[in-house]
């Protein structure tokens, strides 16, 4: 049910002809209220797609009526024509829904540079068709329509006493860096003020999507949106809400990691006993972005030297000769020297755990990433052809 | 001739049994004087191999008698035993040469974590054998003995009026980040004071090896050494010397790039009209490290959107809608929008040029890198097995 699991929402996913595959490629999610609270976080890339530039204005007042999302074209670096396309998409949805265009978010994903007149025509016609198809069980269709190289839709639902959070996601990346664009829409029927929704969303994404770093490449189109209808007529405990929202975000993040383009391992890098949480994140991210480490995992090689070399490039507090490293539960490095023989490590399962003990404090963090594979190279070299 | 092209130097390369291939794997370069000036720059990785820790002490007084280099084992993260191996190597060379161990540099390259008793025994025996084999035309043998995954030795010689600079290199990486460890030894018969040698070396490496960024991974063992014998009995014009040294370093850097593990393209990313040289380097490096860009080049795809997305992750001065991008001489992006059709770009040649015009100033820099290929993944996943 994804975005229509919570009360007060309708959604649809239709085929606008944007994807060469002929699959669904345009989704609309509408908040029927009574409250129209919205919050969103965006890519931190300074090269932003037109939908990002538009949506950052829309979200400013914390009021969102609907989100229009398309796959099959990123509408990024398409100039003022592309921005007008985004604007016209919002105008079209607003007109049909009887609301203000300034309350319509737009998200796009696909190849950068795609956004000509043909694209515009298909997006506008698809928006019309999707709004005509809106229904209270359209969440699954919407989650299909935002897929690009995803092999399966990503959906998650969590319910608490009287209210529900449901979401959908596409992509294989993360909020900051991203293998492909990550688009996420999460809905709830809990009643939230805009500032409350914004705080909960930032808290949840900081520990979930922000720590998924599949390939270190930052997308121009990433957006995570939270819509709150208040249809359940309940104000949640804000801490409990943020915890439940984090649960949904983590579930979706793990689904994104599991479906990362060309990956053969889903790697969780847990850094413990760091001097600070920031240090733990820095160390985990540095290892996650190290191509030599990632290629070693692809080859089922517990190459702890590459882990230490990656840690050494950071400014985190650590002593290279007081670090322990485990691969899948086997301590292969103790105090910066060899420990158990590499033959004891079985790296054939897809799920891979790396544990790094920095022995400098008591903070920790986990970064999710993937290995570097032949298929990753192939898929990303053939992407636009 | 590499390191024996300049007067006053002897070298040798022998088979110590460290490499499973059975090839030469231990080299010694000796400065016969009359001057024993030395300068060196090292990896900035905080996880440093034992030879780096040792050599950083040796170089402090600017006096170097000889360099002992081995392939077939990095002697990194091998604990105090490994440090003692490095120390004993210097002691052995010093004893046989009749000099102080404190004037012997040691360099190692190979798998991290390799450095047990067998390794030590072979290194010490090989050092003895190499010193017995020293000769004034041993430079070529030395350049063979430092190779690891290199498919060919890297040598360069430049002569000016009365003095010569010659060098050898191994690896496929760079001084800061490095695909594999980069080891370089450069000799000259010009007469230089230690401070002059140090200044010239830093100036030369900053614009050559430091701008070679094959895969963004920083090695634990990188070292570039300059030895000056003064045997030509000439003090060079220092500016002319630094220019000639830069020429040798650039030549060696391009040979490293040409032989990068698994690469199918040698890519020069030239960033022009930047607000500062630092901005130009930052932008070039960000593009050079972007896996999506690198995979696109492998696939002969002029995907300028990935170039702009990589620029957008930096803090360099630029306007995403006032950037031009050329692939192999074809301007595919003008002012952040599409220009010439991608079909006009021929990316089949190995030599690939990317030109990025930031239109914010008049500074420029060029970063050398390689594409991300199936062979890169294969070679680096199989490295230790």
UniProtKB/TrEMBL annotation, chains A, B:
Organism annotation: Microbacterium saccharophilum
E.C. code: 2.3.1.35, 2.3.1.1
Positions contributing to substrate binding: 148, 170, 181, 261, 380, 385
Entry protein name: Arginine biosynthesis bifunctional protein ArgJ
Pfam families: ArgJ
Site entry: Involved in the stabilization of negative charge on the oxyanion by the formation of the oxyanion hole: 109-110
Keyword Cytoplasm recorded: yes
Pathway assigned in UniProt: Amino-acid biosynthesis; L-arginine biosynthesis; L-ornithine and N-acetyl-L-glutamate from L-glutamate and N(2)-acetyl-L-ornithine (cyclic): step 1/1; Amino-acid biosynthesis; L-arginine biosynthesis; N(2)-acetyl-L-ornithine from L-glutamate: step 1/4
NCBIfam families: ArgJ (TIGR00120), PRK05388.1 (NF003802)
